[in-house]
Amino acid sequence: MTALVLVFCLQASPNSCIEQRPVEDMPALMCLVRAQEYAANWLSDHPKWVLSRWRCEHNIPRQRPA
Question: Is the pLDDT at 33 greater than 90, yes or no?
Fold first, then answer.
């Protein structure tokens, strides 16, 4: 299965980023289709953040954002 990984950074401090994994066990196609929805939902609750990047990981251990 596949994990959706979203990386958000503070608008005021673009080097301050966090990684969120809203879903860690989904089909790869579902990850691609639902990524925008998950990102938009998270951003609506966290207005000081921006989406920096996202990816769908398949059997890859967690990594710290750069």
Answer: yes
Number of domains in the chain: 1
Q: Is 62 helix (H, G, I), strand (E, B) or coil?
A: coil
Model's pTM, two decimal places? 0.81
Residue 61 in any domain: the answer is no
What gap in Å lies between CA 62 and CA 48, rounded to an integer? 24
Q: Supply the pLDDT for residue 15.
A: 94
Residue 27: how many other CB atoms lie within 10 Å: 11
Assigned domain for 63 exists: no
Q: What gap in Å lies between CA 22 and CA 39, rounded to an integer?
A: 9
| Listed residue (44, 49, 35, 27) closest to 4, CA to CA | 35
